[in-house]
Amino acid sequence: MEKRPRIKLIPTLGDKILELMGCLSLFALWYLMAVNYDKLPETIPVHYNTSGKADNFGGKETILALPVIATILFVGMTIVNRFPHLFNYPVKITKENAFRQYANASRMMRYLKFISVVILGVISFKTIPNAAGTSDELGEWFFPLTMGFIFIPVIYYVLKAFREV
């Protein structure tokens, strides 16, 4: 493995705001669970197909998997983001481009961390009325929007990495 420069990145205001939004989203997801868990019926939707319709059901405790997964992802991505010199990059990292490449990759990681929590939060938020019988789906646009919120920014950041060589 090539020896890459280790640079201490100082988060910009935008990075700090994105980080705060992620933390607040994670807190809101746990709060949503705390407030609504006792109100849930014993059987709830636990899986949705690509059309957004519930296609599998299980015990209400399974809804706790969503905030747990969100927390593990958030903490794990926060730790990984401290080591941008270990990331995979589409370009060769040099002393000249290391700061720009690391900052770009770190920002992408912050965005993905935030959007992952939001997506799991929306699933949780929509599962609560689905479990109560007032709705039975996430909506047909959920899957394509989710894919767009993940892949469009990733493509953007990868293209930006090529431009910032």
Automatic annotation (TrEMBL):
User: DUF1648 domain location, by residue?
Assistant: 26-70
State what protein this is by name. DUF1648 domain-containing protein
Give the residue spans that cross the bilayer.
20-37, 63-83, 111-129, 141-159
Which top-rank group of organisms is this from? Bacteria
| Pfam families membership | DUF1648
Q: Which UniProt keywords apply?
A: Membrane, Transmembrane, Transmembrane helix
Annotated InterPro entries:
DUF1648
